[in-house]
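Marked as duplicate of an earlier ticket. Keeping the data here for the record.
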Amino acid sequence: MAKRDCRAPQEGGEKVRAGVAADAAEIPVAGVALVADLAGALYWPEERLLVVSDLHLEKGSSFARRGVLLPPYDTASTLERLAGVLSRYAVRTVVALGDSFHDQNGPARLAAADRAKLMELQGGRDWVWIAGNHDPDPARDLGGVFATSLGLWPLWFRHEPISQASPGEIAGHLHPVARVGRRCRTLTRRCFVSDGARLVMPAFGAYAGGLNIRHAAFAQVFGALAFTAHLLGQRRLFTFAAMSCLADGSP
């Protein structure tokens, strides 16, 4: 059995340029320097574009309708975190990469205060809702525009990653989390995953779950485990090669 490495992980990303959050780090994708924020958002400084994925708004109310009672504050919490990210950058355009709502009826269940908060966040910005598998159809009275995908050369934004797609794909859907050994204990964190040519976003939603990056779904996307996980820490990103991360069930 391989001996666990108990050393502290590497600090993730490259040095960040002026004008972005101090605790963020750059992740290059298809030659574009993108800024990974610790909240799980991605910022493209040259385009002043912010990307978030898998907000899963109204997941709590969706579960409640099926008799599973969760604290009904996930939408407010998620929108408040998004407001915090928007306050750190000069954002002109927001791209929500699908599964923004947990189900197609989620927008109709928005509380008045949460709807008002969403409209406030959209103020003075372009807002693009990308269709997801949970919310494939456009919703009324949400503001912004709806699209199945969005191309902005050399990047392409869509909800579900395509197996071995062309360089420049930014996608969500898989909710990546990485499990690592740190100081002789295991730790699981949401993460960005990238091989330098494409990137899969972490889920942003308060109640969104996660899929271990050692799952076969990630190898199918990248063609192998030759990609890097950028874990969201409390104060900075931590970078691990996918091969060094632990599969579920590993000691």
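See parent ticket for discussion. The radius of gyration is 18 Å.
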